[in-house]
């Protein structure tokens, strides 16, 4: 089983365990803020399942129907996660509004806080693992899941502060206020996830630093060519698609031009994991004199 799939499967197990702990905390206390935290964990479990399905699809090799691979399946998972985060925020706001209009007593608050603390520690550790592995494996689904879990940790800390303040001051409306703030924080997290995943679906260009590194690799490995121009590159999950035009002398043989292309492709694939390079070879009169100069 590929590493990304194992990690995604682990997210489901962690999500279910954290959800059980938070539901117990809410059941013991009756706090609407703790209920809001539990509702977010329901979303965590659902998105973990979506990420697992997406990662399993993404690691499948290219086939006749999907010649460029299945990498973009992860972006659909990230979009779904963003949408579900927004739904969770709406549910929490509804609970917060009800508690604001009819404040509820909080029972066994400190037992609930201990449970929330335990859940936050688990979430925090797993969020770090997901973000690290997501970046390492170039997995948008895992990284988005990690960012969402880290937001959950922040939300839980805010909820804990609100519960303590409500118990110590007797101002039960603080419980509802903190639940509403959790919802706003979740909405912001959902927007961040959606923005990143939509960029991937729209074939957004790789960062300028990566483009500059690609220009340098082409320049250093295209000895014998005249220039290169119209460089374009995009990420699709774990794959990076690169294409450009390579201008060679008109009298150069096909074999020699092919050898230059092979050198460039090898350098690109060594520098960028999962790199797929397409090179369009052109004769000298096609030079634009404004692209990548060959060293």
UniProtKB/TrEMBL annotation:
UniProt keyword terms in alphabetical order: Cell membrane, Membrane, Transmembrane, Transmembrane helix, Transport
Protein name as it appears in the record: Protein p34
Gene Ontology MF term list: cadmium ion transmembrane transporter activity; ferrous iron transmembrane transporter activity; zinc efflux antiporter activity
Assigned GO CC terms: plasma membrane
Principal place of residence: membrane
GO terms (BP aspect): intracellular zinc ion homeostasis
Subcellular localization, as worded in the UniProt entry: Cell membrane
InterPro entries the UniProt entry points to: Cation_efflux, Cation_efflux_CTD, Cation_efflux_CTD_sf, Cation_efflux_TM, Cation_efflux_TMD_sf, CDF_Transporter
Family label: Belongs to the cation diffusion facilitator (CDF) transporter (TC 2.A.4) family.
Domain Cation efflux protein transmembrane: 11-202
Keyword Transmembrane helix listed: yes
Lineage: Bacteria, Pseudomonadati, Pseudomonadota, Alphaproteobacteria, Rhodobacterales
Superkingdom of the organism of origin: Bacteria
């Amino acid at each position: 089983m590929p590493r990304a799939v194992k990690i995604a499967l682990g997210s489901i197990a962690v999500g279910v365990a954290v959800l059980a702990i938070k539901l117990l905390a809410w059941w013991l206390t009756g706090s609407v803020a703790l209920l809001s935290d539990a509702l977010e964990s329901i979303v965590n479990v659902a998105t973990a399942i979506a990420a697992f399905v997406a990662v399993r699809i993404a690691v499948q090799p290219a086939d006749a129907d999907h010649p460029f691979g299945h990498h973009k399946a992860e972006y659909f998972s990230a979009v779904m996660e963003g949408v579900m985060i927004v739904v969770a925020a709406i549910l929490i706001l509804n609970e917060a509004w009800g508690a604001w209009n009819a404040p509820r007593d909080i029972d066994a608050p400190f037992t609930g806080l201990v449970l929330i603390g335990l859940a936050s520690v688990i979430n925090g550790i797993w969020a770090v693992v997901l973000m690290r592995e997501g970046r390492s494996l170039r997995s948008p689904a895992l990284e988005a899941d990690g960012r969402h879990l880290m937001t959950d940790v922040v939300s839980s800390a805010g909820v804990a502060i609100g519960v303590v303040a409500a118990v110590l001051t007797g101002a039960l409306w603080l419980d509802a206020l903190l639940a509403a703030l959790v919802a706003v924080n979740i909405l912001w997290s959902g927007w961040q996830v959606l923005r990143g995943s939509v960029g991937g679906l729209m074939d957004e260009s790789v960062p300028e630093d990566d483009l500059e590194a690609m220009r340098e690799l082409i320049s250093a490995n295209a000895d014998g060519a005249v220039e290169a121009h119209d460089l374009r590159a995009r990420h699709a999950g774990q794959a990076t698609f690169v294409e450009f035009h390579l201008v060679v002398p008109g009298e150069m043989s096909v074999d020699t031009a092919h050898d230059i292309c092979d050198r460039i492709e090898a350098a690109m694939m060594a520098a960028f994991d999962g790199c797929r390079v397409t090179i369009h070879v052109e004769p000298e009169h096609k030079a634009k004199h404004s692209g990548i100069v060959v060293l």
